Amino acid sequence: MIEDNSQATGADSRGQVPASVSVFFPCYNEQDNVARVVEQALAVLKKLNADFEVIIVDDGSSDATGRIADEISQSDGRIKVVHHPTNLGYGAALQSGFKAATKEFVFYTDGDGQFDINEMPPLLPLMAQYDIVSCYRLNRRDPFIRKVNGWCWTKLVCLLFGMKIRDIDCAFKLYKREIFDNIELTSAGALIDTEILARAIRRDYRITQRGVHHHPRTAGAQTGANLRVICRAFKELFKLRSKIRSEK
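and the corresponding structure tokens:
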């Protein structure tokens, strides 16, 4: 079941906040962003007075991201780092984050700082009714061609998998961690969000959608629009559709 609610998240959290949450950041060459996003996450999570952990997934970065992440983790026992020896892809980074998460709820957002984690707490009370909160970007702050590509991709995957998701690849999602004990993920690249939501829908998990604000990247470089990544995603898309449709 998917509920579409156009209400944007606010800065406050209403209702009872779950007491156990993992927050992770997939990072590839984010040396100028990783310390800032983790610091912001810690500030938000401490205010919740919740049982939490922060996980940094370094996807084989060639810059100082891994070293900085290790230094950050030494300052707080609630911070963990997962290292990939080489760059394995966005999907592999998300899979590592989900596997490393130990709390009841798991939230992820990218390590590039284009989202404000202060918009995460209002999502938590929704988990009393839903299994997944899949957010969508309000006033997406990306180049025009990237926004067009994103819109077309979302429409295509929703058509192929019979979903009604407004922004399939928005990197601001909250899940019940138990979901990942019950679904098997195979995507190592950009198809990962499509696979998670398509499999979750087939298992009748409840999904709601909320809008979150999107901010310009202030440091580092985007990698998602890489032609190789796009071609790989299209190749995997139709394989995944056939595989999911053949499963009972």
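(Above: one complete record from the training split.) The domain at 2-246 is CATH 3.90.550.10 (Spore Coat Polysaccharide Biosynthesis Protein SpsA; Chain A).
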